[in-house]
Amino acid sequence: MAAPTPTPEPEHAPDDPKAARVKARAEAKAKSAALADVLAPVKTRTVLAQFVQILASAATVVPFIGIVELGRTLLAPGPTDTGRVWLVVWLVVGGLAARALFAFLALAITHFADLDLQAQLRIRIADKLGRLPLGWFSRTSSGAVRKSVQNDVADLHYLVAHAQVEATAAVLSPIFALIYCFILDWRLGLLAIATVPLYALTYSYMARDLTAEMEKMDTGVARISATIVEFIAGVAVVKTFGQTGKAHRRFIDAADEFNDDFAGYMGPMLRVQAITTVLISAPLILLVNLGVGYWLVDKGWVTPIELVGSTLIAMILPTALLTVSTAVHTRQQASAAALRIADLLAEPELAVPENPQVPAGHDVRIENVHFTYPPRLGMPSGVKALDGVSVELAEGTVTALVGPSGSGKSTLATLLPRFGDPDSGSVRIGGVDVRDIAPTELYRHVGFVLQDVQLLTMSVRDNIRLGRPEATEEQVHDAARAARIHERILELSDGYDTVVGDGAHFSGGEAQRVSIARALLADTPILVLDEATAFADPESEAQIQQAIGALMVGRTVLVIAHRLGSITHADNIVVLDRGRVVEQGRQDELVANGGLYASMWASYEAGTTRQDEKIALGAVGSDEVAR
Fold it and tell me: Is the pLDDT confidence value at 624 over 70?
């Protein structure tokens, strides 16, 4: 295979501050665009909710006006104007009622919008998952899919249902109140926000490296999580070889590094945060307003009741600033979640033909196929798995794929059921390119039994007839008998009605035979077998081989096997190496040619002979033989 193209050097070094800023701006722009796209279906309603909240925020200032006017009336010389007092009281009550009503209405609008958005997104994601190539799922963890469907969508809840309305209230309520302060006296307006500029300066200083540091913290947490998973996954091996302390050391080192980074950043920031907290604390605001306000009153520029009103308004500023800060942080989280959702929705889909065709037969022709895995894990050019592969599978024959690990066997086999499409070349069934066959029609022609068996949490019966829901009870039983699993199913508490994972707990070999029963019942004329006996014990392997023998009768079969002894009777053996076909033919022909297959066969025979000798000498037990 040709040497990979060298990756060009980046224009800037990774630690170049300018390059980091450019990258940060690009990421911020991408997140903003993704968030706008994801929120587009509810944009009109969120804007309406914000407009309603503006009315609620305007009503917020009414109680402050009422307090000042009530004070003026009660402190005025002469008899108290009772009518004016009650008028002011009712205006305050009306203002409070209007604020509550409009705030409730705004949140109701956003909450219903959030429910609709979550439903739409989950439907879009589920629909998208149904149209992605099956190969996408083999390279994407189930945790990542679950995170997109559940966590990432849920992360949008606060932003849609609360953040925008609450941020609007937090910004506009103080603004309306401050306007009233300036109406009372411009000096009172300035006094109410006296500490805010200092708070803004210290907060901006604290947040200057927040994004980069949060990414650093996330990387540290990911490393700690990886060491925990590594230790738990390999705990049996670690304990067996007495390396518990060594395995713990990796976790301790990761935790210490994270702790040092976290303390190095948060130590100074906590001091700055303490200062910002003091600057908007109620005691300091009260001290500044009453202290300076007394001087203003003494000068005769303002009245005491006006000072009381402006001081009460100044006291609501800390809550408003904290709400805005929370909304900004929530928007950052939601933007990251939206970007992940947008990336998922942008994944290339499995192309569906506009004018689907039906295969005229069950022969398979693979012609000059090239396939490169998509770029991932820091590999910008991807990995080329197949390089000009051509293979013919005559109808009703068995073709075996063999070769060293990484030679492209599984990749080639998965192109037949369209787990992915080739970059160039074609895979044809009955003369029709698989890309021109509707997916439902394709899976009526092609079935597969993989080494990684997936049984669903449903009855054993429904698991077997997954590909043929209309099958009768007798047909299900016949398929199970042919797969050598019928008797085992009858031993379950509820027989075929037993739910997998609840009352039915199958071993690896038993689960494999259930999947073979499923394939037998589906009765597809073309079959792909990928290491069906890879993890089976000797007894299960014999039963699986018998079941596979029944499954292969009369079908066009493509089989992958590392155990060469299982494919000696194949009609054609295709030998792959580094993504290319280097040999093909029958067993005796390939052995006589003295090529790669001959050397693989010699190694296989030597290993089998040594195993037989060990068994004869009693040097190993059945467990080691199984391994």
Answer: no
Q: Where in the chain is the domain with CATH 3.40.50.300?
A: 364-626
Query: How many alpha carbons lie under 13 Å from residue 23 in its C-beta half-sphere?
Result: 14
Partners of 379 in the beta sheet? 376
366: left (phi over 0), alpha (psi -120 to 50) or beta: beta
pLDDT over 80 at 500, yes or no: yes
pLDDT confidence tier of residue 262, bands split at 50, 70 and 90? low
| CATH number of the structural domain 364-626 | 3.40.50.300
Domain 32-184+323-350 sits in CATH 3.10.450.50: no
For strands 556-560 and 526-530, give the pairing.
Answer: parallel
Nearest by Cα to 491 from 504, 479, 480: 504
Q: How many CA atoms lie within 13 A of 389 on its CB side?
A: 34
State the span(s) of the chain assigned CATH 1.20.1560.10: 32-184+323-350
Report how far residue 107's alpha carbon sits from residue 402's, in angstroms, rounded to the nearest whole number.
63
Q: How many CA within 13 A on the CB side of residue 308?
A: 13
Residue showing tokens 């160039």: 424
How many CA atoms lie within 13 Å of 253's alpha carbon, on the beta-carbon side?
A: 8
73: enclosing H helix or E strand? helix 43-75
- Please check whether residue 369 is in contact with residue 181, taking contact to mean a CB–CB distance below 8 angstroms: no
* Contact yes or no for 563/607 (Cβ under 8 A): no
What's the rounded Cα separation, in Å, for the pair 560 and 405?
A: 12
Read off the pTM.
Answer: 0.58
